[in-house]
Design goal:
By secondary structure, this protein is of the alpha+beta class. It has 3 helices and 7 strands; from the N terminus they run E-E-E-E-E-E-H-E-H-H. The strands form 3 sheets. A 3-stranded mixed sheet has the order 5-6-7. Strand 5 and strand 6 form a beta hairpin. The longest helix has 20 residues.
Length: 107
């Protein structure tokens, strides 16, 4: 839902200390009526950030399995890698190719 401050969407994840917390992704990018990218950007990364991205990948995988109307893809853009490559990108499709997250890999 859209509310004060934008989209009120969060995913629960287990923090490094074992507590449960809510993660609010940075951006939702809609490239067609049925295709969504959930994009997280990060400068300095800590242990909880790694857990958030892994949880986001699991969420996208799970939601794509239980419904077929929409497709959700996690994208994780690390600042250092972005700074190295940003001038080479010509389209969002190229960003997706480099920064797309799978359950086994975060960029």
């Amino acid at each position: 839902t859209i509310g004060e401050g934008g989209i009120n969407f969060s995913i629960e994840y287990q923090k490094e200390d074992g507590n449960i917390a809510s993660y609010f992704p940075d951006f939702f990018i809609k490239t067609s009526a049925v295709t969504f990218y959930i994009l997280e950007t990060k400068g300095r990364e800590d242990l909880d950030d790694v857990r958030k991205i892994k949880r986001l990948a699991i969420w996208c995988n799970d939601i794509n399995k239980v419904q077929t109307q929409y497709t959700y893809t996690p994208i994780y853009v690390k600042q250092e890698k972005w700074d190295d490559l940003k001038n080479d990108f010509k389209s969002f499709k190229e960003v997706v190719k480099i920064f797309k997250v799978t359950q086994n890999k975060e960029s």
